[in-house]
């Protein structure tokens, strides 16, 4: 059995439609009252959107119900599915902790409560029955003020037992307007020894080369090989990995055909740039990581050798994977131990 690493999955977009529907039925029926049945809800929840901003609005639907009390419910079901159906050995969950706090509280109260959110997510992610190595990436957000985003960086630094890095999310167009803030915050994060990734070069509105030197991985990054291939040399020199999430680009209208990704993979392989294949929002897409692999193979975007290279890269660039080897090597060592010399009587 092959085991996989998932480096780019949002907590808000990870809840599959059926789980979310059942939760709403039991606890918040008003949120689904406009849908005739589950099929209508699933269609609404998973259908493609016209733009990234329209797509991101769906996150608010889930964020509103992911609270201190309910997060263990959602995380248990997320990990159960990831272990049983996706063969995940490693999972980084990313989210904005501030957006899981009650919005009626003051900003300072919500900042203080973020620590509890991180602890709840961390403890809920440690399940003996589904032994996946997990860690959190805390997302700053393009629609939150500087003070809150700095508090998120500080929170990550203070909770390294649960947190392996930081990110910035919230949409390309909003991030671009505040590029000086992001540079300052990422520079601060690096000074604290934090691992860094960031949503960048996902769409044509998010192409900000000034931020690239501060990132260890690049969230999406597909516009680099598509529009700015001259940057790939520097990306390779910095040993940066692209977190490519194939289904996302069809759901957000960023690409019209998945086969457009062939140029992304070809140029990255030629330039020596690593790619980790990810799901981004497995629930919103109603897909799982092995499907992303299969889809890329089916459309001849990559071959099996390249797929294995991407799978290896995911473990190699994982911020919190505790071993030098990926699971297949560890299992091979267990199943094929070195022969011992016979005892001489």
From TrEMBL:
GO biological process terms on file: adenosine catabolic process; hypoxanthine salvage; inosine biosynthetic process
Organism: Brasilonema sennae CENA114
Name this polypeptide is given: adenosine deaminase
Organism classification: Bacteria, Bacillati, Cyanobacteriota, Cyanophyceae, Nostocales
Single GO molecular function: metal ion binding
Keyword presence, Metal-binding: yes
Keyword annotations of the record: Hydrolase, Metal-binding, Zinc
Cofactor list: Zn(2+)
Keyword hit for Zinc: yes
Gene3D superfamilies in the record: Metal-dependent hydrolases (3.20.20.140)
Enzyme nomenclature, EC number: 3.5.4.4
């Amino acid at each position: 059995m092959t085991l996989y690493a998932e480096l780019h999955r949002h907590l808000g977009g990870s809840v599959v439609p059926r789980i979310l529907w059942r939760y709403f039925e039991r606890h918040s029926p008003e949120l689904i009252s406009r849908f005739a049945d589950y099929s209508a809800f699933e269609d609404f929840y998973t259908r493609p959107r016209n733009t990234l901003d329209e797509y991101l609005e769906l996150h608010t639907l889930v964020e509103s119900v992911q609270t201190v009390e309910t997060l263990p419910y959602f995380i248990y079901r997320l990990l159960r599915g990831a272990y049983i159906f996706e063969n995940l050995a490693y999972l980084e969950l990313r989210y904005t902790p501030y957006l899981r706090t009650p919005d009626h509280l003051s900003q300072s109260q919500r900042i203080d409560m973020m620590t509890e959110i991180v602890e709840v997510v961390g403890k809920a992610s440690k399940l003996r029955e589904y032994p996946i190595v997990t860690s959190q990436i805390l997302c700053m957000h393009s629609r939150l003020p500087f003070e809150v985003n700095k508090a998120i960086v500080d929170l990550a630094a203070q909770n390294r037992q649960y947190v392996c890095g930081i990110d910035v999310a919230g949409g390309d167009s909003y991030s671009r307007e505040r590029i000086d803030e992001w540079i300052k915050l990422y520079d601060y994060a690096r000074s604290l020894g934090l691992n860094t990734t960031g949503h960048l070069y996902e769409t044509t509105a998010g192409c900000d080369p000034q931020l690239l030197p501060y990132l260890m991985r690049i969230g999406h990054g597909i516009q680099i090989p598509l529009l700015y291939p001259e940057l790939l040399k520097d990306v390779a020199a910095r040993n940066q990995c692209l977190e490519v999430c194939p289904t996302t680009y069809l759901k957000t209208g960023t690409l019209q055909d998945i086969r457009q990704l062939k140029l992304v993979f070809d140029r990255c392989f030629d330039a020596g740039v690593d790619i980790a294949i990810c799901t981004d929002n497995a629930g919103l897409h109603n897909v799982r990581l092995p499907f992303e692999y299969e889809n890329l193979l089916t459309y001849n975007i990559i071959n099996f050798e390249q797929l294995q290279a991407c799978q290896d890269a995911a473990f190699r660039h994982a911020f919190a994977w505790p071993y030098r080897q990926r699971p297949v090597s560890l299992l091979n060592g267990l199943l094929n131990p070195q022969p011992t010399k016979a005892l001489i009587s």
